[in-house]
Amino acid sequence: MATPIHTDQALSAESGWGARADAPEAEARDYWLLLKPRVMSLVIFTACVGLLAAPHGVHPVIAIASLLCIAVGAGASGALNMWWDADIDAEMERTRKRPVPAGRISAEEALWVGAALSVLSVALLSVFANAAAAALLALTIAFYLFVYTMWLKRSTPHNVVIGGAAGAFPPMIGWCIATGGIGVEALIMFGIIFMWTPPHSWALALFRNDDYTRVGVPMLPVAAGETETRRQILIYSVLMAPVAMAPLFTPIAGPLYGLVAGVLTLRFLQLAYGLYRRTDAEAAADNRRAEKKFFGFSILYLFGVFLALLVEAVWRAI
Predict the structure, then answer these.
(1) pTM: predicted TM-score of the whole model, two decimal places
(2) Does 174 share its domain with 41?
(3) Taking residues 18-36, what's their average pLDDT?
(4) In sequence order, which ranges of 129-169 are alpha helices (DSSP H)?
(5) Nearest to residue 148, comparing CAs of 247, 219, 252?
(6) Which domain holds residue 170?
(7) Residue 18 burial by CB count (10 A; 0-12/13-18/19+): exposed, middle or buried?
(8) Which listed residue, of 38, 152, 211, 315, carries a Cα 20 to 30 Å from 218's Cα?
(9) Element (H, E) at 235
(10) Residue 24 binned pLDDT confidence (cut-offs 50, 70, 90)
């Protein structure tokens, strides 16, 4: 297995600490892509659910301003991730067209954009909301950069198990904006995303295994093989199921959530079991179609579960 090397975050002149001389000039769209807008949208959505599900209301202006701060913080994390991972992003099919590895934005510029937006988002959230919410946002950015990106991602196949906490913090931040603290309900929402992240990420790793093998990132399929990865997907899916139903024992969920989460969770388990029963040969024969299907459904699953919580919250507020 190749060993990833990150020497002082410096890239060769070809892939560039600075933007490549032959690369097209950066456009506004490149700076938008630097912030990983798809990830940002999920962060905003789950943070909004946490905020609206909280027992105390927030003035709409404060709510919108706070969510914008969270969005900026999420974008900052994306930029910092692209700065650090520019070397391996340039070698992976899935990421090589990103602004930094493509040379349209220099890694150094990505670092400064990420650092500036990090400070700005945390500072403004402390003004618009409260110090506790700002501290949670700072923790989220730091965890994603230092714990996941710099440490875990290249050192252990359990990277997404522990590192998944970074993506699970947003509903807690939203809850904290409204209440100034962290309740059991916020911890449950954290738990849903935390347990969902490994199966979701490992499904992606299964059909992007060549990418991770090429750059030496020890994702589970690289380190333990595809058969063990499918087994772990099933295990974590089973462990996720009771956490996903736990909101029913709190005031934030009702019959609608029970129906939606119940149906989606059963389907999640069914697909996970289907993966578990597959052999490597079967997966290779159909170009890992089932793995791609599971990955796509996992995105729909998280959206559906949190949308049900959002509808319940809005219904209670009417």
Answers:
(1) 0.91
(2) yes
(3) 77
(4) 131-142, 159-163, 165-168
(5) 219
(6) 15-182
(7) middle
(8) 38
(9) helix 226-245
(10) low
Number of domains in the chain: 2
Q: Measure the CA–CA gap between 205 and 116, rounded to whole angstroms.
A: 31
Question: 169 and 117 in one domain?
Answer: yes
Cα angle 166, 161, 95; round to 5? 70
Distance CA 225, CA 261 (A): 31
| 7 domain-assigned | no
pLDDT higher than 60, residue 10: no
Residue among 250, 65, 15 nearest 174 (CA): 65
Instruction: Give the model confidence (pLDDT) of 77-115 as tens digits.
Output: 999 999 999 999 999 999 999 999 999 999 999 999 999
Q: At what angle do helices 184-207 and 255-277 cross, to 10 degrees?
A: 30
| Domain assignment present for 10 | no
Residues 209 and 74 in one domain: no
Find how far residue 58's CA is from the centre of its chain: 26
**CATH number of the domain that residue 149 is part of:** 1.10.357.140
Tell the residue number behind the tokens 């796509």, with chain if given. Answer: 296
CA distance 78 to 34: 7
Q: What is the pLDDT of residues 151-195, one digit of tens each?
A: 999 999 999 999 999 999 999 999 999 999 999 999 999 999 999
Structure tokens at 169: 């913090």
At 234, is the secondary structure helix, strand, or coil? helix
**Is there a single domain that holds both residue 21 and residue 157?**
yes
Count of positions (residues) in the chain: 318
Q: Is residue 155 part of a domain?
A: yes
Whole-angstrom distance, CA of residue 4 vs CA of residue 222: 13
